[in-house]
Amino acid sequence: MSEDEVENGPDLDAIARASADAMWAKDPASAGLGMHLLDIGPGYALMTMEITAAMTNGHDTAHGGFIFSLADSAFAFACNSHGDRAVAQHCAITFIRPGKLGDRLVAAAHEVSRTGRSGIYDVQVSVADEVIAEFRGHSRTVGGSWVE
Predict the structure, then answer these.
(1) Strand-by-strand arrangement of the 36-41 sheet
(2) Is 43 left (phi over 0), alpha (psi -120 to 50) or beta?
(3) How far does the chain reach from its first CA to its final CA, in angstroms?
(4) What's the CA gap between 37 and 120, in Å, rounded?
(5) 99 by DSSP, 3-state: which?
(6) What is the DSSP letter of 18?
(7) How many angstroms separate the CA atoms of 18 and 49, rounded?
(8) What is the C-alpha to C-alpha distance for residues 12 and 110, in angstroms, rounded to an integer?
(9) pTM listed for this prediction
(10) What is the pLDDT of residues 39-56, one digit of tens each?
(11) What residues have CB less than 8 Å from 96, skipping those under 6 apart?
(12) Degrees, nearest 5: CA angle 103-107-111
């Protein structure tokens, strides 16, 4: 631990960024779906993804699995932002309105609570200023760290 960390405590934003960088380097799924991590902080992540033609279904709307995937990725970055490796234990999503071809989805994940090995995170998925889905994820730390 550096002298600055002893005096001021660890740099939580730096830990969140380092954890996100390490995760992103091992996450071809999020990158392959065209997701972008816009912002990261302790217990927080902001991601985007554009709905392409390959992501639409027979109703000519965004397939819910892709909306879930974006929310799940934002949740993953948020719950791993403290440096400890964490995985999803349980997730649920409520679709409020459909996404459409060309929509730029924005997923904002926020920590609700974190105690022991368990965490709860809420993710709002929006198009412009309209929320189209609400996601809640429960995380569990599994041992190990993203940062040295």
Answers:
(1) 36-41, 44-50, 104-115, 118-127, 130-145, 84-95
(2) left
(3) 11
(4) 20
(5) coil
(6) H
(7) 22
(8) 15
(9) 0.93
(10) 999 999 999 999 999 999
(11) 131, 132, 133, 134
(12) 170
DSSP, residue by residue, 102-143: T-EEEEEEEEEEEETTEEEEEEEEEETTEEEEEEEEEEEEEE
pLDDT in tens, 17-40: 999 999 999 999 999 999 999 999
CA dist., res. 86 & res. 16, Å (int): 13
CA dist list (Å): 134 to 16, 68, 72, 118, 122: 23, 9, 11, 20, 7
Tallying the residues shown for the chain, one arrives at 148
Contact of 45 with 77, CB cutoff 8 Å: yes
